[in-house]
Amino acid sequence: AKHSGRSTFSWYTPELDADAQKRKEIELGLEKALKYDQLKLLYQPQYSLKDGVLKGYEALIRWEHPTRGIIRPDVFIPIAEDTGMIQEIGTWVLNHACREAAMWSDTARRVAVNMSPAQFVAGETQNRVAQALHASGLHPSRLEIEITESLLISNTDAVIETLQQIRSMGVSIAMDDFGTGYSSLSYLSLFPFDKIKIDKAFIHNLGKDPSTDAIVTSIIGLGRSLDVTITAEGVETENQVVLLRAAGCDLVQGYLYGKPDSVDVHETAEPEMAAR
Ligand code: C2E
Ligand code: CA
Ligand code: CA
Ligand code: CA
Fold it and tell me: What DSSP assignment string belongs to 179-212?
């Protein structure tokens, strides 16, 4: 709240009005996006660092807006979380990713799907996962769910039970953005994650800052002793690859290897990309 020059009292600054208006527009637009098929998934490849094998893809959502062009998830996912529309969008993502992955020519490749904490509904999330697998015919071992530690902050017991049920179907669970939260480490003892994704902020500073190098090396060592697969995300330079390889990182994902795109585009990409 602030006083304007003419001593009338106003609650909102013009910027807030513009923000609120934009939010409203996105909110209404999202309903149409679902209805008129404007959402799509792009896939970013993940390679094994040891042998260059393409192991799978992370599904990343995009909104193809009819007039505003392609809208990134950071713009609309938080709003979908606030309005509850994340339920419908999340279910669409899960079904769509499983259906597309089931059609890939290489049946060993996995698909990783992001799920936001707001999507988790006790007793329902595991059914949605089971239904998506059943409807697509995708083998559960090919599906991976990426969650962030913020999911585990509240309602721990119910969430852990849900994760355990999903895992018992044969689906793997990855902790995304590892190291960015307050207590990433403590959550590792609460749930047996299959994979840890080192946040791209750490990878960005790799080779530039000795303490970052030490942290990344420690996370990779931790992964080895816990028998958890470690993925580095946001890999952009050859120098980062050299350091990650020396530290024994398992998987790499980033612009150096491929931007999020259709799987068709990745399949026809230059073969030397895989052997990097
Ligand atoms: P995230 O899960 O941490 O995904 C990684 C983000 O880093 C993606 O942004 C990806 O395009 C970007 N990225 C990949 N490689 C590089 C690189 O080498 N350098 C840099 N600077 N960035 C790279 P994107 O696609 O815009 O997604 C942003 C976030 O939106 C995701 O972060 C995830 O939290 C969320 N998101 C995306 N798709 C979904 C979805 O289907 N459902 C939910 N709930 N959230 C999603
Ligand atoms: Ca992710
Ligand atoms: Ca991430
Ligand atoms: Ca993130």
Answer: TSSS-HHHHHTTS--SEEEE-HHHHHHTTT-HHH
The closest alpha carbon to 86, from 107, 115, 57, belongs to 115
* 79 touches 30 (CB < 8 A): yes
Pairing status of strand 172-178 against strand 39-48: unpaired
**Which residues keep their CB under 5 angstroms from ion ligand 4?**
177
Q: At 120, phi and psi to the nearest 5? A: -75, 120
Q: Give 215-244 pLDDT, tens digit per residue.
A: 999 999 999 999 999 999 999 999 999 999
* Alpha carbons 18 and 14: distance in angstroms, whole number: 6
Pocket of ligand 1 (CB under 6 A): 44, 59-61, 72-74, 77, 90, 93, 114-116, 176-177, 200, 233-236, 254-255, 260
- Supply the ipTM of this predicted assembly: 0.98
174 C-alpha to ligand 2 centroid (Å)? 9
Using the predicted structure, report yes or no on whether residue 3 has a pLDDT greater than 50.
no
Global confidence as pTM: 0.93
Where does residue 77 rank: exposed (0-12), middle (13-18), buried (19+ CB within 10 A)? buried
